[in-house]
Amino acid sequence: ITAFLASNKRNSYNAQLRAKQMSRRRRQRKMDELSGKINPKMLEQLRKKTKFTKDELDALCRIYRKLISNCQYAAKTLATGSSSAAIVKPHAAVEGIDRIVFRELLHSTFDIVTEEILMERIFCCWDRAHEGLPLRLEGWLTGLSIFLRGSLAERANFCFRVYDLNSDGFITKDEMFTLLRNCLIKQPQDEDPDEGVKDLVEIVLKKFDLDKDGKVSIEDFMGTIDIEPLLLQAFGQCLPSETATVSFFSTLQI
Q: Where do the EF-hand domain residues begin and end (predicted)?
């Protein structure tokens, strides 16, 4: 009985010790992530998962640190300047790149000038594992890899998810209308610009709807892009131009 009790006590102590060690490692990973640091093992995993070199990953982590700092500063400023501070989240709770900083990055760094609805969809689709949440380090890097160096198939898949506004697996006529209506510039002489958009939707649908079921599936979209790559961003800009991509990499301090 004494041996049994001693064994149980040792097992309980070992379990507590392992739990503390795991908790300590999780806290350290979280701190490293928020500071933009990558341990050698994670660095190698990300190098295999993305299309960046180790030096590029280090440089992108430095950018991540700056963006996190911007998020925290903006949240702190909002909290101190708001008259309704009770409903404002404290800046310490901000973890990752938020919508405001992300949109500013897309606009100022990658020359993406698009409607609010597309900006929101790009943000939500960036990290599939944490859709719509502030971007953490790994999600930031893996999403950036597709955004900047993805294959045609990877970028087409990303664009499709952006255009699929309700995430049901199809781009419907209503979604096409919303996207194209926001993209087109209304002319003062147009009496009913929506009619022109409806006509354009029918034209685009005929191009993309390969199985003729009245909506565009991922298979339809990929098949069309494979034939005509220039239609990749037919429903609005959600990827950077080649010039913006080259310019971005030239600014990395490697």
A: 151-186, 196-231
* pLDDT value of residue 18: 73
Rounded to an integer, what distance in angstroms lies between the CA atom of residue 63 and that of residue 243? Answer: 20
**Has this prediction a pTM greater than 0.85?**
no
Residue 91 burial (CB < 10 Å; 0-12/13-18/19+)?
Answer: middle
- Can you say whether the dihedral through the CA atoms of 151, 155, 158, 164 is positive or negative? negative
Amino acid at site 4: F
Q: Over the stretch 5-40, which tens digit does the pLDDT of each residue have?
A: 566 666 666 667 677 666 665 555 555 554 456 678
pLDDT at 126: 95
How far is the CA of 160 from the CAs of 4, 31, 97, 107, 166, in angstroms? 61, 34, 23, 21, 11
Taking residue 154's Cβ as centre, other Cβ atoms within 10 Å add up to 14
Residue 52 corresponds to which tokens in the numbers above?
């960046």
Please enumerate in sequence order all residues whose Cβ is within 8 A of that of 128, keeping only pairs 6 or more positions apart, or say none.
Answer: 161
pLDDT at 83: 46
| Cβ count near 212 (within 10 Å) | 8
- The 8-class DSSP code of residue 178 comes to H
Quote the crossing angle between the two packed helices 152-163 and 137-149, to the nearest 10°: 110
Give the residue carrying structure tokens 């739990």.
19
pLDDT in tens, 99-148: 999 999 999 999 998 888 999 999 999 998 888 889 999 999 999 999 99
Q: Which domains does the chain have, with CATH numbers?
A: 51-252 (1.10.238.10)
